[in-house]
Amino acid sequence: DRADKHFFPPSLLWLMVGDRKPEDFTRSFERLANRGVELRRGNVTRIDPARKEVEIDGQSFAADALVIALGADYAPEAIPGLAEAGLNIYTLEGAGAIHDALDRFEGGRIVILTAAPMYKCPAAPYEAALLVDAFLRKHGLRDKTNIEFFAAEPRPMFVAGPDLGAAVRGMVETQGVAYHPEHQVKEVDPAARRITFTNGTTAEYDLLLYVPPHQAPAVVRDAGLTNEAGWIPVDRHTMQTKFEGVFAIGDINSIPLKMGRPLPKAGIFAHGQAGVVANNIVHSWSGRGSPRKFVAEGMCFIETGNARAGIGKGNFYAEPMPQVEMRGPNLFWHMAKILYEKYWLYRHF
């Protein structure tokens, strides 16, 4: 891994509004040694999938099974001016900077935007809008603030279906957040604090929060592992790539659904895929247990502020459309998300 610590990504939203500090949800990777895992820090500089070899900062390693879990790289530089103008919701540094900016904020116009129609954790920017709204109400600033959400996608959480999308949109609009779907950002002028979209419209802001474009790391593209969309195609049940004994899990892979869109990039799916791959490697090598298939049963908490959350859960491999239902929002699901955070950090570190 490039980092020396793990952080629990869903907690970035709480950090953003001051409900967490970084140390509350970060853990050292050194703890993995207690589980018999040898950690190598550095950058993956080459992958040879045919030979199952990788290089980390130039040092070569050979494998009997290779599991690629490099995630998605953020590419705000793909949109001129975006990185200079706004704050990234999806990084530890960005979430901390958002908290600092909200603490200084005295009113004005806040814009939240998704810079591309497909990104990981599809609920997160909508949760961000709702949590910012709740933060401003708590501090007596909501009447002095306009919040606008510009989405590159046609509706919230598109792959989860129109019913869930309508429910999430309703949550946002009920709180007075203006929602503008199908607005693809073209460029941002940091000096003028102006956003220009490909449809010719513009928007001004005092504080800009964004989800950046995503792309696969260059090393997997250079290895010839990616498809025309730039991600690694895999068998939808085993996560194996076109190379025997080489697997790709999590945000870096691409699994097409019957509806014509890929399976969303989400931590719940990465976790499930990791379990399937690990089980099947053990079975292949030792004969213990039986093979498993990834079935894309998933769920996602949706924080709405004021100690309330909803949950969307269902079968994303269902045809012709994923079958996902929404429950809440209420206190129960908010507490469930808190407990899941605690469970994750305790169980794995």
UniProtKB/TrEMBL annotation:
Q: What is the name attached to this protein's record?
A: FAD-dependent pyridine nucleotide-disulfide oxidoreductase
Give the organism the record lists. Candidatus Gallionella acididurans
Q: Recorded GO terms, molecular function?
A: oxidoreductase activity
Among InterPro entries, the record links this protein to: FAD/NAD-bd_sf (IPR036188), FAD/NAD-binding_dom (IPR023753), SQRD (IPR052541)
Q: The organism sits in which domain of life? A: Bacteria
The UniProt record lists the FAD/NAD(P)-binding domain at: 27-253
